[in-house]
Description:
By secondary structure, this protein is mainly alpha-helical.
Amino acid sequence: MIHITNRALSAIAFGLTAVGVVCVVAMMGLTTVDVIARYAFNSPTLWADEVASYLLIAIVFLGLAPNVRQDAHIRIDVLTNLVTGRVRAALEVFAYAAGIVFSVLLLLGVWTRFANFYDRGIISDSPLMTPLWVPMLPVVIGAAVLVLTMVVGFFVTTTALLSGRELSTEATTLASTHSKDMP
């Protein structure tokens, strides 16, 4: 069951990464258009900064789960480098448990804000008058996938700890499954 969930999460993470790349390219294009309009034609756009901000938020939140899956997140490994074997595996389980708590709290917080924006019809105070629930969508999606990623990581590392398997091979399952799915 975990293997199937891990494979599905891998495909989702790959899709989020692809959307993030599209957002980066769009943000670069918008910024370029705005700079050209501002300095070449002395007519800056009124919307490029706002849209670029929304894209940046999407890039960050859509990249959370893929980052964890690829073990690319910032990690202070002073303690884990001093220990080996089961102690390291136990610390990894603890890290995923803490990650579950954090990501669930994050999801609850962003869901509350998203629901508030949607229910009240709150719009941005800008010329675009963007309904603020729209730029919150990638935040909610990113937080939800992060929760799932942390739960799967917790089960994978706990299984490795309890079965006595080497954690290094088990922990990289999240990243290697993702890498194999990439074209």
